[in-house]
């Protein structure tokens, strides 16, 4: 996931990289580039379907904090919180769009062709990720900006769920200032999960950061 680059250049570069990488190994075939507004994601299409499935969500129920009110209390009555209910409805929409029990695959769209994605309005893809040496190259882009266009959940909250964090900080698009103020009023710790490995026996172990998250001090 990245949001620091310039769109659509970042999108085009990632599509191009994925296109060439898929020519080297079939392991990368399930990967797609997903776009939601100015956020860019590299997703495993079946993995996303499994992540959004009702079965997975029932086995690994998320905990929520409502940053519009407080960042130090886990919500206990989610049915009474409109922001949580909207977040759950977004999960349901992902689950309906990418069902696990069917042949899960993203629509393959050729440059410049208008095609209707399942559940999405028709739109024209303007040839992102084109390659002058291969006019028949398929696009690997899944744009869900319109799919989630009417939701009020802020993207950082959606990303918390997509990245699999055990606690999701919730706030809506118009409440970013209140969320930041609530966070700034408390001492926070940053927790990181690392993957350690060694390329060869006896070699020095390397560490790669898998994910990180901020937690209020007395909730850690």
Automatic annotation (TrEMBL):
Organism from which the protein derives: Setaria viridis (Green bristlegrass)
The protein, known as:
Uncharacterized protein
